[in-house]
């Protein structure tokens, strides 16, 4: 008898499963709007010019392949923290931010989950928005936290359920952990306004909640690095202690290089040193130390003024292409095809994704009849649309809902 004879078949990953179905489809009109990876105007993966140049600089420096320290490349983590918190951030200038390199955003969330499970002195309950990125629940559950939800999405308005969100955070036990998408909320594409963020910050203060920011899309939401960090920087300026997961997958297109950072603000250098030591103790048995190459690329961009400017412009170009696809899709559905329903949210939503309002039955029909693939909840990656396929997509949606 095999040791694994009782192992049950598990369900396919709901997001990566879409790509598998797409790959198996041989129709030339097929479109993959499942996974959140940027595609250029020709539907091709895009390597940023700033990344190519940074890679050349790294290569030319004759780099070795030695191990990094447990918390990664120190210059990279310093620059990653500046990018997120801002060069003028008070905790940064006080030397009170504990930061470690991570295996992209997922790894940052997992380090955070494990650190909180071990050291957070209050109830180990984390509140996630409903809905949230599908991997948040398993990450925090497997880290040993109790996962609960707060209202976020209003089906009727296809907008933010701000009253529900406030009521749920007010009803949470004091000192609970609350996960906040810093910008470009995945999957809904709906972000609080600056005024709403200020109210959320006040409730978090009132209820002594612990804010954990997931910032996987800095620059991708509005095209501006500081703009997209508004929520994080506001919370820090209000005196909140925060946790932060950063990913460079999307904004540098470094998906497979797995470049990220996890940080915590502390009360000062002495506490930071203690927190740093415990971060190492969490990380060492997980994977010992992080990968080298991507961190060198990201650090070269972040530390070189000319490359940084070029990168900023490229982030803006990516964000703007996505915004132009929103406009185009909205116009096709509303004006050209007169598709039944209200599609204004396609234009107003932010970031990589749009929560279309299409039902599981629609998404199934689109896959089977039109070779158009998306997650069952009707989320589409706007980056998968381009001048060559948007008409097929719009007419297929029109046919599916009519
Ligand atoms: N958080 C959110 C909200 C995401 O959408 C993603 C990627 N889909 C991640 C974190 C992590 O991605 P990665 O591990 O590739 O950086």
Describe this structure in words.
Helices cover 46% and strands 14% of the residues. The chain has 402 residues and is of the alpha/beta class. The protein has a 7-stranded mixed sheet with strand order 2-10-9-8-7-3-4, sandwiched between helices. It has a two-stranded parallel ribbon with strand order 1-12. A two-stranded antiparallel sheet has the order 5-6. The longest helix is centred in the last third of the chain and has 32 residues, at 305-336. It is globular and about 65 Å long. The N and C termini lie far apart (54 Å). The model has no long low-confidence stretch (mean pLDDT 96). The site of 4'-deoxy-4'-aminopyridoxal-5'-phosphate has 13 residues, from α5. InterPro entries: Aminotransferase_I/II_large, Asp_trans, NHTrfase_class1_PyrdxlP-BS, PyrdxlP-dep_Trfase, PyrdxlP-dep_Trfase_major, PyrdxlP-dep_Trfase_small. Belongs to the class-I pyridoxal-phosphate-dependent aminotransferase family. Residues 29-396 form the Aminotransferase class I/classII large domain.
Write the layout of secondary structure elements.
Layout: H1 16-24, E1 31-32, H2 49-60, H3 74-85, H4 90-93, E2 97-103, H5 104-119, E3 125-130, H6 136-143, E4 146-151, E5 153-154, E6 159-160, H7 162-171, E7 177-181, H8 194-206, E8 210-215, H9 225-228, H10 230-237, E9 243-247, E10 259-265, H11 269-287, H12 293-303, H13 305-336, H14 344-348, E11 353-355, H15 360-370, E12 372-373, E13 379-381, H16 390-401
Parallel strand pairs: 1-12, 3-4, 3-7, 7-8, 8-9
Antiparallel strand pairs: 2-10, 5-6, 9-10, 11-13
Domain Aminotransferase class I/classII large: 29-396
EC number: 2.6.1.1
Cofactor: pyridoxal 5'-phosphate
């Amino acid at each position: 008898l095999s040791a694994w004879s009782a192992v049950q078949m598990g369900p396919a990953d709901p997001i990566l499963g879409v790509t598998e179905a797409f790959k198996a489809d041989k129709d030339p009109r097929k479109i993959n709007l499942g996974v959140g990876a940027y595609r250029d105007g020709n539907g091709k993966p895009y390597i940023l010019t700033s990344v190519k140049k940074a890679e050349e600089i790294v290569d030319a420096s004759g780099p070795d392949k030695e191990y990094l320290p447990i918390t990664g490349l120190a210059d990279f983590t310093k620059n990653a923290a500046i990018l997120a918190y801002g060069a003028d951030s008070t905790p940064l200038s006080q030397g009170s931010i504990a930061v470690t390199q991570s295996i992209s955003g997922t790894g940052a969330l997992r380090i955070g989950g494990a650190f909180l499970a071990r050291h957070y002195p209050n109830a180990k309950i984390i509140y996630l928005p409903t809905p949230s990125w599908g991997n948040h629940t398993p990450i925090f559950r497997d880290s040993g936290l109790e996962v609960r939800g707060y209202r976020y999405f209003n089906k009727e308005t296809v907008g933010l359920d701000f009253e529900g969100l406030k009521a749920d955070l007010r009803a949470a036990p004091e000192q609970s952990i609350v996960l906040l998408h810093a910008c470009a909320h995945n999957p809904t594409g709906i972000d609080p306004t600056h005024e709403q963020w200020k109210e959320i910050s006040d409730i978090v203060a009132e209820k002594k909640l612990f804010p954990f920011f997931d910032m996987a899309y800095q620059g991708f939401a509005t095209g501006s690095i500081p703009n997209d960090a508004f929520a994080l920087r506001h919370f820090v300026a209000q005196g909140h202690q925060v946790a932060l997961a950063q990913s460079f997958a999307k904004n540098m297109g470094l998906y497979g290089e797995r470049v990220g950072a996890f940080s915590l603000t502390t009360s000062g250098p002495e506490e930071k040193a203690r927190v740093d030591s415990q971060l190492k103790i969490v990380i060492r048995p997980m994977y010992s130390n992080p990968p080298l190459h991507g961190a060198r690329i990201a650090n070269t961009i972040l530390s070189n003024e000319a490359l940084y400017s070029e990168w900023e412009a490229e982030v803006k170009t990516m964000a703007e292409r996505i915004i132009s696809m929103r406009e185009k899709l909205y116009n096709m559905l509303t004006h050209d095809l007169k598709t039944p329903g209200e599609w204004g949210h396609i234009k107003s939503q932010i970031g990589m994704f749009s929560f279309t309002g299409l039902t599981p039955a629609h998404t199934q029909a689109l896959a089977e009849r039109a070779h158009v693939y998306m997650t069952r909840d009707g989320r589409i990656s706007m980056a998968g649309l381009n001048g060559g396929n948007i008409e097929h997509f719009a007419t297929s949606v029109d046919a599916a809902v009519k």
